[in-house]
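Notebook entry, structure prediction.
Reason for the run: the old model in the group folder had no record of what sequence produced it. Starting over properly, with the input documented here first.
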Amino acid sequence: MNHRVKIISSAGSWKSRFSLPFSKSISNRILIIRALCGGVFQIRNLSTAGDTVLLERLLNTDQRVLDSGNAGTVFRFLTAYAALRLPGRIISGNERLRQRPVAPLVNALRTLGAEIEYTEKEGFAPLRIRKKINMGGKVIIDAGKSSQFISALLLIAPMLSGGLKIVTKGPKVSEPYIEMTCKLMERFGISVERGQGFFNVPQQNYQPSTVSVESDWSSAAFWYELVALSPGSEGILEGLHLNGIQGDERTADIYAILGVRSEEVPEGIRIQKMHGTNYPESIELDFRNHPDLFLPVASTLTALKISARLKGLETLHDKESDRIQMFLKGITLLGGKYILESGGVLRLIPSDLHSAPDTIPVMEDHRVAMAFASLSPVISPLMIDNPVSVDKSYPGFWENLKHTGYQLEFF
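New structure, fully documented this time:
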């Protein structure tokens, strides 16, 4: 197994085109919908990301223990699905996943009649589903912990006797992902009423229908990072479109400020780094609704020496890694400077980056690996550990990087 990758920058500008992975966020939701309506429709362009492959396998296994590995979405969606359909199963995960909270979802499912036991530490995986949900009704859930809790409940809501009303407390995080869930449910014939602080889903049946999955905007963000740091370069992101259902389409707006032009073309979206970009002296961004964009955007801002104030980072502590700490570790090795303020606000201080004396650690976090790898236009050579981590969302990332002219050596 390869434990490290050394990236050596290509010389000058480049033009390339990339086959992006299909959205695992969309794919995972459609897999749950298909399972709930009997698995009788075709999914075109289903993501080949590790998380999606894992979820599809677990939805079609008779194993008593469903091991979600490091996949938080898989774990949370499976927990709600198992509470509805799979009593007697144990929903587990790896060591990192067992540190990620699940109590708000479990409490909501218990309200609906499910009997769920924490087999180790209270509030965390593994879970044993002792008795399934026996009714619909109303649940109250903290919207500030994870949008996946709400999405997991929404997906099973139409199948509950009497339907389900979800009342949310506090400001929502990653709200576009909840809206994605609602729009996909509507695509399959479900009526979802939503308003300020509530969702109401009557009892209904999903209507099977062949569906195609869009390319993934969260993965596209790393090519925006590469182009932003490569004057004169351009790439075509195949199969990607504007005005879709993915919240991370916000990438195009953010990078427009950083000199990257997005143009829809027949093949997808062409992105170009514009010459003579006048960067803002400082920038403030809120990642509450777009947490997956934090790593590529923060890396880009640091490399461009733009003073920045970044907020809305609360949920990043509970991802595949503590993404704030992993970013700060890596960027410190590269000479970056920052101030982490009270309240979780991160200030980036303009500084000169340089090659790291050590390998950049990424733990098992795919987005950490890709964000630092995409700094290669300004830092070469660059050594990153655990390159296989990208398989979780973007198995073809390293091949695509090689196609732009970067040299990769795996150890």
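Summary: Residues 288 and 312 are 4 Å apart (CA to CA).
The old model has been moved to the deprecated folder.
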